[in-house]
Write a structure and sequence with these properties.
Elements: E1 8-14, H1 18-29, E2 36-42, H2 49-55, E3 62-65, H3 71-80, E4 86-89, E5 95-96, H4 100-110, E6 116-124, E7 130-133, H5 141-145, E8 156-159, H6 160-166, H7 177-186, E9 191-203, H8 209-212, H9 217-227, H10 235-258
Parallel strand pairs: 1-2, 1-4, 2-3, 6-9
Antiparallel strand pairs: 4-8, 5-9, 6-7, 6-8
């Protein structure tokens, strides 16, 4: 670690993702940033993930592999152990692109008023091939409240002091815990999109939550809307209605992108 650079803590929650986990770990540990604290919280995997993590344990600040209450709980457990001035989490099937951490820190260091910075993110398939682009765009608290999210979680970095003020993630959320956090962070400080820089890749595959359980996202977003004092007749509620109508087509297109067969959703 280099004390001349602010500490960045990165959390990876994982459960039975051995197929992709090594690529995720390598994408973090090969970053050209000298002061990283990397924490892996595994939910008791039985697919060989523990053996992969052990190969890297001398380069990890902390890791565990015990049963937990799911992804949101794992992220909260990781951040509870984090000491970084800047924070991020990277799921165990996603990857960082070279230079992501250093670029994010440079921006946050030179813009002390900004609470969160994010950049572009590609979609990749199970084999790591680029299959699309996340629709990242500038947003803010008011636009987030209207359902204009546009923040790829994989390429988002935020200030640790803000996390400690508004966190942790709500463990009752399965899908929209990141949206909930973006709203809380944006209420405290500006969020900024840096266009033209790809910091991460979001993996779409048949078992990914975005494919298998997307229908759970918007109802959770509406919970945030109403918690923040939102009305029933508002843009985000209208968008939810339109999204429900378009859901079969959207899900069919995503499944076609990753080449997965349709599954029964519960």
């Amino acid at each position: 670690m280099n004390s001349n650079k602010p500490l960045v803590s990165i959390i990876t929650p994982s459960f039975n993702q051995a197929k992709f986990l090594r690529q995720t770990i390598e994408s973090v540990l090969t970053q050209d940033y000298p002061n990283l604290e990397y924490i892996i919280i595994d939910g008791g995997s039985t697919d060989g993930s523990q053996e992969i993590i052990k190969e890297y344990e001398d380069r990890l600040a902390y890791w565990e592999s015990i049963s937990d209450r799911g992804q949101t709980d794992a992220i909260n457990k990781g951040f509870a152990k984090a000491n970084g001035e800047y924070l991020a989490w990277l799921n165990s099937d996603d990857v960082y692109q070279p230079g992501a951490v250093a670029q994010a820190v440079d921006y946050l260091e030179s813009h002390p008023d900004v609470g969160l910075v994010y950049s572009d993110c590609t979609f990749i398939d199970a084999e790591g091939r680029t299959i699309g682009q996340f629709p990242a765009a500038q947003t803010d608290y008011q636009r987030l409240r209207r359902g204009f999210v546009h923040i790829p979680q994989q390429s988002a970095f935020f200030r640790g002091d803000l996390w400690r003020k508004v966190g942790p993630l709500d463990p009752s959320f399965y899908f929209a815990m990141d949206y909930d956090l973006w709203v809380r962070l944006a209420a405290q400080a500006p969020v900024v999109y840096l266009a033209g820089r790809v910091w991460a890749s979001f993996r779409l595959h048949g078992d990914a939550k975005t494919i298998a359980a997307d229908a759970r996202c918007w109802p959770e977003m509406l919970r945030v809307h109403y918690r923040e004092g939102g009305k029933w007749l508002s843009p985000i509620v209208i968008k939810y209605g339109l999204r429900r109508l378009a859901a079969p087509l959207i899900n069919w297109r995503r499944k076609r992108m990753v080449g997965s067969e349709p599954k029964d959703e519960k």
